[in-house]
Amino acid sequence: MARDYYEVLGVSRGAGQDEIQQAFRTQARKYHPDVNKDPNAEERFKELNDAYSVLSDPKTRARYDRFGEDYRKIPEDWEERVGAGVGGGGGGFRGWTTSGDGDRVRFVRGFGDDVAGGGVDFEDLFGAFFGGGMGGRGGGRMDIPGADQEAELPLTVEDAYHGGRRTVTLAGPTGQRSFEVDVPPGVVDGQRIRLAGQGGRGTGDAPAGDLYLRVRILPHPRFRLEGRNVHIHLPVSPWEAALGATVPVPTPGGTAKVTVPPGTSTGRKLRLRGEGMPNPRGPDGDLYAEIRIMVPPHPGARERELFEELGRTSSFDPRSER
User: Fold this and answer.
1) Burial of 265 (0-12, 13-18, 19+ CB in 10 A)
2) What is the CATH number of the domain that holds 30?
3) Whole-structure pTM value
């Protein structure tokens, strides 16, 4: 389900045009990709634009208020068409709302004083007006585009990093459907992939809607994502931390090398520039390796001797360090 446009802008449903415009300007300045470098800012900015384009137009907003997500199914001149079909025959329509009914739009409560309640089927209703239904004979054919739909696309961190062609199978009321999807490298959590014409069916000769696959990055035992940046714990030995070393570090794209400076302690973060998630529109993300000093769980005799000698020789007191 798409987010409510009023929620996206952070305004109430009764907000005036000035309030809607101000809310959009405030958030657009905050999330504009030229200002906000968060990888999710671009998607958020697009969402704001979508919401504002609908709510800033009184006619489009009126259709959205009445029909919700299904407003795209309703032509802009639906009131004129209905009025012409009624022919001024008393009452007109009042306060239409929608409820889900499969691929059809069902209008509830609404024809003058003749319908006090219950559902009015869209096709039956327009069939009565225009003679023969939306796709039938007579001069009142109404072809309504199909609704856009959305589904979830789970990906591992590695799949999101590399991208590639995938087969996606979705279950629906009419059975399963499979799609071939080109996943671009470096997709991030929440990003949408559009499959044109794979959404809800249109009526008559109207086109089908689009299907949007929203990416969900699955939890990973090793990598943690923050936008396009990747965080990982990097285990090192006490001598590597004390003396310095070059050690391998896993990344979503393979294995890289990182230099551990001498005197490194647990918790220090080493940055590997560009080793995070790829970004087709800008710099790649970075990888942050957080040091974890590990000691031998079962030291051998010689190891114990060396540690004991170090303990007697060293004047280092970690509890006195600030």
Assistant:
1) exposed
2) 1.10.287.110
3) 0.55
